[in-house]
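Students often ask why we bother encoding 3D structure as a string. The short answer is that it lets us treat folding as translation between two languages. Here is a chain of 126 residues written in the first language.
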Amino acid sequence: MILLRRLLGDVLRRQRQRQGRTLREVSSSARVSLGYLSEVERGQKEASSELLSAICDALDVRMSELMREVSDELALAELAQSAAATPSQHVPTPVRPMLGAVSVAGVPPERVTIKAPAEAVDVVAA
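And here it is in the second language, the structure alphabet:
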């Protein structure tokens, strides 16, 4: 089962680590307890929209950018989950509408690279 709170926590942690910041620095700036922020990053707590806004402000990241990265992670997780459940069938590639249609015809099914705005992510069929 894919849990949105875990994906969100992973993305928040990566954003913080990219900036070389500690949990303590971000929690202080966002005015959120260190323990609670840690639980959000580990996917153990659901963050409210107000809390996410405060964390995004502390990280100087737009919430839309954060949610876009979470959406990309979710699409990849769903793709991997579908591929694992039905390895012999073709699994459609999720594409964000703003990117337009992408054709993967002729690409070996063993390895497809999806380039997200933030970073390149390899998807390997199981």
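Translate back mentally: The longest helix spans residues 63-85. Keep this in mind for the problem set.
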